[in-house]
Amino acid sequence: MSTEQPGEIKSGGNVLAKSMGFSLGLALLFTLVANLLPQMEGEAPVEQEVDLGALTVESFAALGESIFSGNGTCALCHNDLGRAPDILALNMVETAIAHLKDERYKGNATDAVSYLHESMVDPGIYVVKGFGKKGSNDTISPMPSIDKPPIQLSEIEINAVIAYLQAKDGHDVTVSLPTEVPAVETAPEKSAGPASTAEEVLSRYGCQACHKVLGSGGDLGPDLEQVGKRLSPEKIRQSIIDPDVDITEGFSPGVMPQNFSEQMMVKELEMLVTFLADTKVASGEKPVELSMANNAEDKKTAGSEAGGVKEVVTRFGCQACHVILGRGGALGPSLENVGNRMNADQIRQSIVEPDAMITEGFPSGVMPSNFSEQISDTELDALVIFLLEQRDG
Amino acid sequence: MKASRYSLRWVWMTLLIIAALSFFWSGAMTTSSGGWFSEAIAANNTSIGEVTTENDELKLRPAPKPTRADYPDIGVSSRSIVWVVAQMHLFFGALVLAVPLFVLVIELLGVYTGDSRYDDMAHEFMKISITAYSITALFGGTLALALFLLYPDLMAYMMRVFGAQMMVYGILFFLESMILYIYYYGWDALRYGNAKWVHLSLGLLLNGVGATLMVTANSWATFMMAPSGVNEVGAVVGNIWEIMKGPLWNPINLHRFIANIAFGGAVVGAYAAYKCLAARTTEARAHYDWMGYTSNFIAILAFLPLPFAGYWLMAEIYAYSQQMGITAMGGILAWLFIIQAVLIGTILLAGNYYLWSGMSRTEGSKRYQGFVKYIAVVLVICFLIWVTPHTLILTSGEIAALGGSHHHLLGPLGIMPAKNIAVNLMLVFTFMSFQIYRRSDKVATVSWAKAGNALMIAIYAVAIINIIFAGVYYGYFTNTVYKVGSSVMQVMSTLTVIICGVVLDAFLYRGAKTLPSHWGQVSNRAQYALFALPIAFTWLMALMGYVRSSVRTHWHVYTVMKDTSPDNFIPTIGYAGNMMTIVTVLFVLFVLFIFWIANLSGTKQVPAYAVNKEPTAERVGSVT
Predict the structure, then answer these.
(1) Chain B: nearest CA to A282, how far in angstroms?
(2) What is the mean pLDDT of residues B94-114?
(3) pLDDT level of residue B18 (50, 70, 90 thresholds)
(4) Which residue in A342, B211, B393, B596 has the fewest CB atoms around it within 10 Å?
(5) A250: which residues sit within 8 A by CB, 6+ positions away?
(6) Residue A38 DSSP symbol
(7) Mean pLDDT, range B420-438, rounded to an integer
(8) If you average pLDDT over residues B167-193, what whole number do you get?
(9) Between B481, B558, B568, which is nearest A130 by CB?
C-alpha cells in the first residue's frame, strides 16, 4: 500500500487505454459517417470505339447524348443549377441563330452547326451574358476548349454532340457524319427526328419498362391498357410531362422520370396522348388480342422471331433506366461496362431476379421482377452474352 | 537600454538570415545571376527557338503516355501503398514544420517576459518534434522509393520537369537537419545573455529553411494539379521558376502553412493532455494543464483563419478550371464536404468545450458562464445545418414519404448559402468563447470600459445580422452570381469581429486587475477534448488531401499526363474513409511512440541500492 506524498494526486486509472479508446472511437465514428453516405465510384472516361460502318443519324445523336453526360462532362455545368446555360432546357438551334444575330458576336460561324462547333472549340468568342468569368464583364468564358485536355473530344465526338443538340428538339440533323463512312450508309433507315408511330414512341422512351401497354410491360407504374377510360387526353398529357402532379392511387411519386418534356418531341407527345386516349375505344377489341399476347409461350416465340440483342434491349425498355449502347437513363446502374464487374451468372440473376443483388448506390424494388416471364430463354442467353461483352480495356 | 541592444541584434540576425536565404534562392532559381546551380538549372530554362542540346531535346519531349502494362503490378494496389506512405509523410512533415514555428514564438515570449516556464515548455515541445523529424525522413524516403518503383513513368517525367530543383530540396533537407539538431541540443548551452539571441536566430533560420522546404515540395503537388511552364503536351518550355509558380502554388502554401500550425498545436495539446491526466503531482498537473491550454490556444487561433485560406484556394481552383472546381464542390467529391462539416464541427465543439471547462480555473469566470449555454445552442444548430445534405439518393418509398427528392423545410438548408451562414456563425461564436475565456480572470480598469464593452457587443450584433442577411438575401432571393459574392461579405464580417475583438481587448485590459487562476483545476473530461482535436485534425487533413489529389480525376498531371493505371478511378467515399481511418490510427500509434521516446529521454533508472532505501517502489523509473 503506497502512501500519498504531499502534493501528490491520483491519476485517473489507465490513461493510455482510455485515451486510445476515445481516439479510436472517434476515428471510427468518422469512418461510419463516410460509409453511410452514397457510395459511388468515379470511373475514368472510356474511349468508345465507334463502328463507323454501322453509324446512323440516330445512333450518332445517341452517341452525342452519351458524350454530353459522360466523357464530354458537359452536364457538369450545363444543367439547371445556373453554372452555365441550361442546354437541356434551351432549344440550342434557335439559341445559336439568336446568338449569331447578336452584335456582341465576333466569330466566323454562319449557321447553327458552325456556331455550335465554334462555341465548343473556342468558347471565348461569344460569352452568354451573365456566364462570363467573374470580373471579365462577360468577355472571358470559364468553359475549357473541349477539343483540348482535359476533355479532349475528337472531331467526330464534337459533331456527335452537335447532332444530339439538333435532334433533341426535333430539328433535322445537318451536321456531317464522319467522312470515313460510305455515303450510302449515312442515309439513315431511321431518322433521329420524331418517331413515326405511337408504338415507336413507347419503345423509344421505354414506357413498357414500368407500364403495361400493348400487351406487355412492368408493374412499377399504372397499367395503361385502358388508361383512356380513366383519364382525359389533357390529364394523360400532364401525367407524361409532369408525372408527380396527379399520382394514381397505390403508386409513388418521384419514380417516373421528370424529363420527358425535355426529351420527347411535341409530335411524339401528341401521338402518344392520342394513342393512349384511344385505348378506351379499342378496349372492346383488344382483350382478345391481349389475352393472346399475354400468353407467355406465344410471347417467347414472338421474342425469338424478333431476333437481335439490340431489339431485345429496345423491346424491354432497358434504356429507360440503364445506359447501354451509348444512351439511357440513370435510374439503374450503367451497363456500359457491366462485363467488368459481373460474371454471366450474376448478370442473368440481375435480370430475372433483380433484387437478389443490388448495385451499391441504387435502391431495390425499382426494376421490374417479371422479366423472366416475358423473355425467352434464347433472348435471355443472347442478352447475357451481349452484356458480358460490355467491358473496357 | 539593454533590451534595445538585444532588439538591434535580433534585427541584424533576421536580416542576415533573410539575405542568406534570398541569396541561396537567387542562385538556385535564376539563370542570369549564374548562381550555384545555374548550370544544372539551365536545362530547365530553354525556350523553343534556342539552340538545343541533347539535354534540351529531352526537355522538349512531350509527357509520357504510359499504358496499363507500363505500371508494375506487385499484387497490391499501388495507389493504396502510396496513399498511406504519402499521408504519413505529410502528417509528420506538418508536425515538424509547425512545432518549431510556435516554439520560436514561445521562446521569444520567455525572453521578453523573463518567465522561464515558457522556455521550458518550448524545449519540451521541441523534444516531441525532434523524434518526429526522424520519422518524417523515414516516411519521405519510403515514399520516394514507392513512387519510383510503382509509378516510374510519372517520376521520370517529374524529374525531367523539376530537374536540379530536387537537388536543392535534398540540400535544404540536410541544412534543416543540421540546424534542427544544433537548435535542440544547444538549447541549454545557448540559454542566457547574447547566446540566447544566437539560439533564437538559429530558430528563425530553422523555420526559414523549413518553410522553403515546404513550398518546394508544394510546387510538385501544385504542378500536378495545374501545370505551368510546360506546353499542351507536357514539354518543358519555361524555366524552373515558371514551373513552380503555378496558379495554385501560393494558395496551397498559405493553406498548408496555417493548417500545419493548427495541426501541430493540436498534436502537442494531446501530449499535454495525456501528461496532465497521468500526472502524479499537483505541480505536474498544473504545468501540463497550462501546456494543454497554450497548445489549444495555438491550434484554435490558427484554425480560425483556415477556412478563409480554403476559400482562396478553392476560388483559385475555380479560376484555373471551373470543371476542376465543380468536380470538387458539385461533382462526385461533393459528398466529402459533408464529412468535412462533421470534422470541423467536431473541432469547433471540442475547442469550445475545452474553453468552457477551462473557465473553472478562475473565480472571475462566473460573470460569463451564463453565456455558455446560448453559445452551445448556436453552435449545435449551425453544426446541424452544416451537415444537412442537399441531394439525397432515396428509394421510391422514401421519396413518397418525403414528398419529393428534397425535403420542403430541410432542403433549403442543404445549399451553400445556409452552410456559409452556419460556418461563419460558428467561427464568430467560437471567438466569443475564446474572448470570454480570456476575459474571465481580468477586470478592466480603464475609464471607458463600459463604452468599450458596448462597442464590442455592437460589433458582434452588426456582424451576426450581416452574416445572416447576406446569406439569406443573396443566397435565396438573387441569382447564382451574387450567391458566391455574398460569402465575401460574410467572411469580412467574421474577420472584423476577430480583429476588432483582439485589438479592443488589448486596450481594454491594459493595466487590468488580475483575478486568481488555478492551473490544474480543470475536469478530466476537458483533457479528452484535447484528444478529439488532433484526431479530427488528422482525419481532416487526410480527407482534404484526398480531395485535393482527386480533383485531378484520371490525370497524373492534369491535362498533360493521363493516369492509365488500374487505380485511375475515384474510389467510393466508404473506401476512402476506411483509408483515412487507417492512416489516422497509424499516425496515432507513431505519435504514441514519439511521446514514449520523449518520456524515456527524461527517465533515469534508480540504482538498486537507492531502491532498497526507498520505502515505496512507485518511484522506480518515475519521470524526473
Answers:
(1) 33
(2) 93
(3) low
(4) B596
(5) none
(6) -
(7) 92
(8) 93
(9) B481
Residues B45, B30: Cα–Cα separation, whole Å:
9
For residue A71, give the chain B residue with the closest CA.
B554
Q: Tell me the C-alpha distance between A306 and A308, whole Å.
A: 7
On whether the CB atoms of residues B321 and B359 are closer than 8 A, the answer is no
Under 8 Å between Cβ of A256 and A243 = yes
Mean pLDDT taken over chain B:
85
Assigned domain for B327 exists: no
Closest Cβ–Cβ partner in B278, B318, B531 for A23:
B531
User: String of b and e for A376-388 (b: at least 16 CB within 10 Å)?
Assistant: beebbebbbebbb
A35 near B CB under 8 A: yes
Report yes or no: A94 and A220 within 8 Å, Cβ to Cβ. Answer: no
Burial class (CB in 10 A: 0-12, 13-18, 19+), B66: buried
State the total domains in chain B: 1
Instruction: Judge: A77–B322 Cβ closer than 8 Å, yes or no.
Output: yes
pLDDT at A292: 31
Residues 460-479, chain B, touching A (beta carbon < 8 A): 479
A284 has pLDDT over 50? no
Q: How far apart, in Å, are the Cα atoms of B39 and each of A321, B26, B42, B43? A: 62, 14, 5, 7
Domain around B144: 3-47+60-302+558-605
Is-contact B139 B85, C-beta < 8 A? yes
Kindly tell me the burial class for residue B546, based on how many C-beta atoms sit within 10 Å of its own C-beta (0-12, 13-18, 19 or more): buried
Cell readout for A233 is 387526353
ipTM of the complex: 0.83
Looking at the domain assignment, is residue B373 inside a domain?
no
Please judge whether B536 and A26 are an interchain contact, meaning their C-beta atoms are less than 8 angstroms apart: yes
Q: Which of B426, B434, B463, B433 is nearest to B344 (CA)?
A: B426
- Domain membership of residue B572 (yes or no) is yes
pLDDT in tens, B273-320: 999 999 989 999 999 999 999 999 899 888 888 888 988 898 899 889
